[in-house]
Structures are given as C-alpha cells and as structure tokens.
Amino acid sequence: MAPRCLTVLVPIRPDEKDRLRDVLRAIGDDINGKHISAVNARPHIDFAHSRGIHFARFAILNDPDRGPGRTRLLFASVYDGELDAHLNELVAITSNMDAIWARCEGYKNASGSAEFIKAHAFAPEAYYIAFRGETAEAIKSAIAARRRVQELQDSGGAGALPAQLAVRTIGQAVVDALQRLIRAAPIVSDVVRAVALCGFANVYHLRRRRR
C-alpha cells in the first residue's frame, strides 16, 4: 500500500501566533531532542522514533479571509497505514499536544486532539511520494544496513563483512530488481504489443522521432 497524505488547516487564535511560532521553531531546531533536559522540558515531537511517518511539516500561514493579521496553522504529513493509527502515533510521540493545538480555534484538550485534527483535514489533490512501494520502517532499515556496510568499508573491514549482513544486502538487491521488473511489466507489454501490430522498424523509427 502506498503512503497516504494528511493535510490540516486550522485557524490560530488571535494573539497566539508568536507563541505558537516559538514552540514550533524550538521543535524544528531540535528534531532529535538532544537539547531537552529536566530543566528545559519544552514541547517535543519525537519524529525520529516514528514507525510510520515519511514526512511531516508545520507552517504558519496568513489567513486573509478572516481579516488582517489573522493566521492559520498548516500540518502536513505522509504516513503508512490508516489515518487513525497515524493520529494515535502522532499523539503518542508528542510530549505536549496542548502547547501546539490549544493555540488554535475550537481545540478543547489533548484527549480529543486526534478527532480535532481529523475534523480539520482536507483531502489532497496530489502529493509527492519518494519511495512509493516502501514503508518508513523498510526505508530506515535499509539506511541502517547501508551505514553498517559503509562503516565496515571505512574501517578497512570490508573483507570481514558479516555473512548474515552480506546475504541480507544481496537479497535486498534481488528483491529491488524484481520489484523494478514488476513495475516495468506494463511498459514491456505495451512495447511487445506495438511491435506485434506495427512491426519493429515502425516502432523503432517512431521512437527515434520522439527524441
């Protein structure tokens, strides 16, 4: 199943824009939460440990329809699985939902935050997927395996690559190749059909003219 997209637009309460911007900037400047301590227990969203999020972004946008100086909050994400599971995970990895969403009109409390977000969601007309056939977990696993191989190579231990990792790496390459062949199958089928109907020479010359 291809990843899905969530797009949320919510009016921000008057005079809350600057406070909300400070909260979001602090989260964005420390995505991994390395600078959070008991003394500095600011709001944090643990995106790095999400199991299903490919991409997420907050932005504060102007809202001229509501009058001069009014703004609205945009939240966009690309995720694996069902929307309810995605929202439940978002709540779970956010240390303080109120610090963000309570600055928006109509928000009541953290217990109803998932339903609040869902109520302000819009169906996207289009969105970008970098790896259509891969889950966030599979991508993270592949990145981790590549880093382990790279570390071994950098340390001069490429020849001592663990057999299990080597087999996994080769196996993944085979799987990737098969997936590419499967995705290309309709194209190959169309080419074969065109050659059968029009002849190889005609198809070849048509292709040459289109370049």
Structure description:
- The protein is an alpha+beta fold and 211 residues long.
- It has 2 domains: 4-122, Alpha-Beta Plaits (2-Layer Sandwich); 136-210, no CATH class.
- The protein is 48% helix and 14% strand.
- The chain is built from 7 helices and 4 strands.
- It has helices spanning 17-29, 83-93, 97-101, 113-119, 136-154, 163-198, 200-210; strands spanning 4-11, 53-62, 71-79, 121-122.
- A 4-stranded antiparallel β-sheet has the order 2-3-1-4.
- β2 (53-62) and β3 form a beta hairpin.
- α2 crosses α4 (113-119).
- It is globular, with a radius of gyration of 24 Å.
- The two termini are 34 Å apart.
- Residues 203-208 have low confidence and may be disordered.
Summarize the topology:
Elements: E1 4-11, H1 17-29, E2 53-62, E3 71-79, H2 83-93, H3 97-101, H4 113-119, E4 121-122, H5 136-154, H6 163-198, H7 200-210
Query: Could you report the average pLDDT, rounded to the nearest whole number?
Result: 80
Number of helices, counting only DSSP H or I runs of 4 residues or more:
7
- The low-confidence parts are 203-208
Choose one word for the global shape.
globular
The CATH architecture of the largest domain comes to 2-Layer Sandwich
Order of strands, widest sheet: 2-3-1-4
Write down the domain tally.
2
Largest sheet: 4 strands, antiparallel
Structural class: alpha+beta
Order of helices and strands: EHEEHHHEHHH
CATH topology of the largest domain: Alpha-Beta Plaits
Tell me roughly what share of residues is in helical segments: 40-55%
What top-tier CATH class of the largest domain fits best?
Alpha Beta
Radius of gyration: 24 Å
Number of strands: 4
Give the terminus-to-terminus CA distance. 34 Å
Q: Beta fraction of the residues?
A: 5-15%
